[in-house]
Amino acid sequence: MKAYVHVMLKDGVLDPQGKAIGQALHGLGFDEVGDVRAGKVIEIDLKDGTDKKRIEAMCEKLLANSVIENYRIEVA
Amino acid sequence: MKAYVHVMLKDGVLDPQGKAIGQALHGLGFDEVGDVRAGKVIEIDLKDGTDKKRIEAMCEKLLANSVIENYRIEVA
Questions:
Q1: Distance from A33 to chain B by nearest Cα, in Å?
Q2: Which domains does chain A have, with CATH numbers?
Q3: What is the per-residue pLDDT across A10-59, written as a single tens digit (0 to 9) for each?
Q4: Is B72:B52 a contact under the CB 8 Å cutoff?
């Protein structure tokens, strides 16, 4: 099985990478672009039947910094 | 409207960040973890009705390096 962990900065946390991407898109003439936020996806191969609780534990311990980041787990 | 652009390294392209995450998870006792790949998500606020072709153009020009990266666009 595969788990996809999406890690995004929380709303209100300054995101300089997203800002830079937004400015670059404007510079290229994409005027329809508003706010841009950048985040990470981590794709993990797991033994079949792994409990979602285990994936949550990975997020809490390593993958996300829960002070400034939100995460979302998608299992496929 | 919002677009989510997922950018991942192509299969076969070495992913040291993913490898490091995988090793760290093993070190923490998550033995069910196999291969790990790391990628980016870019969340873009767009004017309603923006054509998907425009988002593809953003990916080709700036967001992804199509030599080594694949991208996937999700519109919400």
A1: 5
A2: 2-75 (3.30.1280.10)
A3: 999 999 999 999 999 999 999 999 999 999 999 999 999 999 999 999 99
A4: no
